[in-house]
Amino acid sequence: MPMANLDAQGNSSNEPMIPLHVLDAPSQRFYIAAFYTVLTAWRLYDYYGLVSDQTDSLWLFMKWVAIDGVILYGLPGLKVPWLEWSASTMTILFLLHGLLNGILMFRIPIPLGTWFLALIKVVYYRETAVDERRVRPADILQNPSLILGKQIIHILPEGSAMLNPDQRPFCIGISKTSVELPIHINQTTPILIELLRIDLDSNTNEIITVTSKRIRKLKKEADREFSKYDITSPRVLKYAVKRTGLYRLQKVVDESKLEVQRRLSDTLVVQCPSASVKSVPQDKCRGELSDFYLQADATPPLKIKYSKTINRDDLGFTLLSVHPDNLIPPLTQQTTSGTLATLQDTDVSWARTRHIEVSINETLGISGGWQYSIDEIYDALGNAVNYSRPEENGQRGPARGSPLEQTFTVHERPKAALHGCDSQHPLKSAKGRSRRLPLRLTSTGNRVIANSHHTISYAFTSQDELRSSGEPTVSARTEVYTLQDSYNGPHIREPGLYTLKSISTGFCTGEVLEPSSCLLLNPPEPDLTVRAEYIPDKCAGNSIGLMVDLDLIGTPPFQVRYNIQRKGGRTSLKVEKVDRLRGQLELRPTEAGHYTYEFLDVSDSVYDRLSLKDKNLVLEQDVKPPPSAQFMDLRPKRMACIEEPLAFPVHFSGEAPWTLEYELVHGDTRQKQTIENVESERHTIYTGKLVDGGEYTLALISVTDKSGCKAVLEQEAIIEVRRQRPKASFGQIEGANKMQTLEGKKINLPVRLTGESPWTVHYRRREDSDSGPSVTTFKYANDVLELSTAGIYELVDVYDASCPGSVDELANSFQVLWIQRPSLRVAESGMMERVGSKAIRRDVCEGDEDAVGISLTGTPPYNIKYEQHWKPERGPASLSEKKITAGLSTASIRMETSQAGLYEYKFSELGDSLYDHDRRKFSPFIVQQRVDPRPSARFTDTGKTYSYCKDDEAGDEVIPIMLSGLPPFHLEIGIKHHGTAKPEIVNVPHIESNQYHFHIPHRVLALGIHAVTIRKIRDARGCQRKTEFDGPHVQVNVANIPAISPFEGKTDYCVGEFISYTLSGVPPFHVFYTFEGKDRKATASTTTFRRIAEKPGVFTITALSDRASTDICKARTEISKTIHPMPSIRISKGRTAEVDIHEGGEAEILFEFGGTPPFEFTYTRSTNAQKGRKPQVLETKNDVSHGYTKTVRASDEGTYEVVSIRDRYCAYSKQGAQGGKGGQKLLMST
Asked: Where is the Nucleoporin POM152 Ig-like domain (predicted)?
């Protein structure tokens, strides 16, 4: 029995070298073709180099022969589908490539042009048929429909029967309750069939008899698949069975009561294979094994195909081959006899369905969703069930409750460690307060497992129970805590050592990383002790402050908060930061009075604001500070304008009144001054006007208070006095305070400034006397004043960044003037008339030259734009815009006269070298002129040829002419013969209408072609049109009568022959003839006229005309030719008929003829066609028939077909047609 198709596909010997799942077959063929294209390009490149450089031909030939050999003989090794050619094919290809290499590398010329022309002639050769269609002569000469049909006679062999000749596998399952066993019968009609069935479970035999009634029904169903005329083809009887077992064709009896020859062949019908998954829990941890089973019920050995998907990523399929131990089924040892059991040994238990479980153990190394799906299962016979497409094979999946998929959710394993705390870096907490255990959670996926509760266990050893080495004791208690999220660990309060033991999630246990231990300590509470000493005054001996020593206990750094209260004043809160356990605080008030210092609380890095009120840490002191004075303005330097005073406020401290000594220093000059009895704490010192520029120093020397205690002062104030006042003036442009510029253009007047930026300048326009000055700000000493109006501008005053200034009287004004804009006007003349805003110019004829002059003012060159409006007599108006450039003050505008109508020239834009056009400053100007149309004349039928015969002496020819314009007209007509150089001129005056019939004088015409042209026309306006060379024309042809005669004298022709005639006259010719009762017209460009006889009928020439005579002088004639159809013959109604006879019988062969009797025909008998062999002709016979049918009896086996036929007039040979020679000829009767 054959195995499943998948077995053949899985055979590694037939697989391509590059697996198809890596690169599919079409892509492999594409890359091979691309590589071959590159090699061909390289080959042609070598050929080009050989031609241009004259390199060694033999070396290149040997190189390419070697390359082609490697490529061609190496290609089958790749085993690419469709490219696995045989060795003989590869040898032929190698020889062809070698021939090509020899032609290219040794530069052997190839007549490609001749071959191409010959190919074109063979493929595209056409002739004109009698019905004026282009046909291929080969299609007419080689007409296979003339000889149709053949009869094949078979000598029937003895009948035979066989069960399941194709060795197909069969199975019965849930959705397939029965199968149809094919019984192949040939050349027999059985009336009795016996089948032997061996039960698979009990190994018992059973004979199943198929009655004649059932056989007739089965044969009737089998006959439906064949034509009713086909009674000899083998039939397949499909017998349905519903039980499993081994079936064998035991006996077949035909209608002659004889037993039909049987070929022994056993067919197994088993239970259809099925597969399912033995489900296990779906939640797994990363790194665990899948550990599940595939269950199969099938006939072993079997194959299971399942696919695997990880996180929706399809990883392909796996094919498992399952072969139970100690099982050797006869399927693997089948002999050519085709039997699977003998009469002595009917044990077929190996074909029973077995339940097999296959373990699938794979490491789940990736987190996420895993899915295993059963796709297909194959049993030992090749029966397959496709679960991915269960509609194939008509199968269903396994029963409900037996899943086809195993799904796993693979979870990451958690990891835990402590951060920021270990046994060497303890965690500190205030007594009675809790801290969170600083946990850091990760996982095997290097990130926190989201949406999952973590459970940790940790051991706690109190601080008193810790060993001297810091290790926990055995008595440490274990706590379990569930984390609601990954950021909040458990709260710990008791001091001691906390050690992580384990971590887990709802699905997986995890790993504890280092550091895993944390020591929690409760440091002592902070405390403060103060000691104070007075700070004495060196002048009077009074205390001016306290120096306080701070002694602290706790964990640095510390913050001490205390209050300072002056008697009669407000209380202020101060904070002192101390980084160590000892600190010093200096309390030195700046004002006299009684001060109380109260220390409120103390904080360290663990405890916050422990109150000190119970310790009553309060200090008191009476303070009398020494005298002092300082500037309230603490800027290091102040700027001042020259000749301006400055004020400096001073703040005093101590006991009033005060006496202040200060000095003002400038250069080598010192001015000392004293201020006495200053009662206020704030006093202002005035310097007076600083008349010299430069640097001044105001220094405080000393201050004396009420008690007479004098303090030396060292504070100074620097004054920088400007050396000059700021100034403003207009700069010059090209050496003058005056400029001309374009109207409306932005004006930048140069302004010169001295002083410090920025400057504020007031200016005004002299023409605007009623308005106040304008104000602007400048940033640069050489700046510009932006303006947009002409006039005289004056500077009024100026201020810089700090000081007022003055304006230079010699350069305080600047004049701005506009440059004149361009203008345009039309020059006056006698041909021009002004009407309002328009200038109307005299009418002109179409095509006459005319121009108008214009005058311009401004700055050349000038740019003029005007619109040309054209209104024709009929049709829509048009508008075009034109531009000209004038280099002088005058210009000429050419008037448009090429077409008739009313023209208006509107000058819409004007600009010069300085000004662009401004529609607000320019008024458009219009010039109008009418252009009268030129008259025209044309022949009513321009280009027409008027013909008549030379012998016709009737009246003159009349040619109609159409005229346009204003009558009366004057015409000049030329008549020129083709053989003369000078035409005859005919003048026709005073034509009063627009239509005229021109009569050609017969005296001016001669034999041949005449050209009649209209040379000139003039109308009543004086406008005229000359058309000497390209004017309208007609031709007059005077001709003789042409003639026609046949090439051959015969009147009878066969289809496929040529009918030829000789023509006399002037080509081209028009041949008039009738065929099939229809009048036809053909054109011949030479003196020979021929047509191929495509159809039978009567071909009659009725008339002929040539180029000179046309239809007026046609030659009337009647030359008839009869075209006879080709004879035809059909065997068996024109079809291929097969007749089966027994040895000694006879069959009739019917011949049917078409054509004209009598008929002579030749037929052959050849061997019947066999695959791989060419039929051989066994005998050839000739026969004659005087009627249209003939019957011949034959008893020999073979294929009978006609090779030639002839009737009274024509003959056709199939052998001649196949040999490339003409197969038709005319037979002349005697």
From this structure: 413-518, 627-713, 725-811, 1130-1211
**Dihedral sign from CA coordinates of 1194, 1198, 1199, 1200:** negative
Please determine, for residue 1085, whether its predicted confidence score (pLDDT) is greater than 70.
yes
DSSP 338: -
CB atoms within 10 A of CB 197: 19
User: What is the average per-residue pLDDT within 560-581?
Assistant: 87
Chosen domain end from 481, 499, 521:
521
Phi, psi at 1119, each rounded to 5°: -115, 115
- Rounded distance between C-alpha atoms, residue 1070 and residue 349, angstroms: 95
Residue 1115 lies in a domain: no
Structure tokens of 863? 């740019």
pLDDT digits (tens, 9 = 90+) for 766-784: 888 788 888 999 999 899 9
523 has pLDDT over 80: yes
CB-facing half-sphere around the CA of 974: CA atoms within 13 A: 21
Domain residues for the domain of 65 are 25-110
What's 747's domain CATH number?
2.60.40
- Split into its structural domains, the chain has a count of 9
Task: Tell me which residue has tokens 């040379």.
Answer: 1015
Identify the pLDDT of residue 1184.
92
Q: Is 1094 exposed, middle or buried (0-12, 13-18, 19+ CB in 10 A)?
A: buried
Question: Cα-Cα-Cα-Cα dihedral of 1027, 1032, 1038, 1042, to 10°?
Answer: 130
Same-domain status, 106 and 211:
no
**Please, how many CA atoms are within 13 Å of residue 1084, restricted to the half-sphere of its CB?**
23
Q: What is this structure's pTM?
A: 0.41
Is 638 inside any structural domain? Answer: no
Is the link from the previous residue into 804 a cis peptide, with omega within 30 of 0? Answer: no
pLDDT higher than threshold 70 for residue 670: yes
Q: Residue 315 in 3-state DSSP?
A: strand
Tokens of residue 882, six digits: 């034109």
String of b and e for 369-379 (b: at least 16 CB within 10 Å)? ebebbbbbbbb
Among 1229, 1221, 1222, 1227, residue whose Cα is nearest residue 1056? 1222
Q: Is the pLDDT of residue 389 over 50?
A: yes
Predicted confidence band at 1160 (pLDDT cuts at 50, 70, 90)? very high
pLDDT per residue as tens digits for the range 602-652: 998 888 888 888 888 888 888 777 788 888 888 878 888 888 888 889 888
- Whether 337 shows a pLDDT value over 60: the answer reads no
Strand partners, 1036: 946, 1010
Q: Is residue 962 within 8 Å of 940, Cβ to Cβ?
A: yes
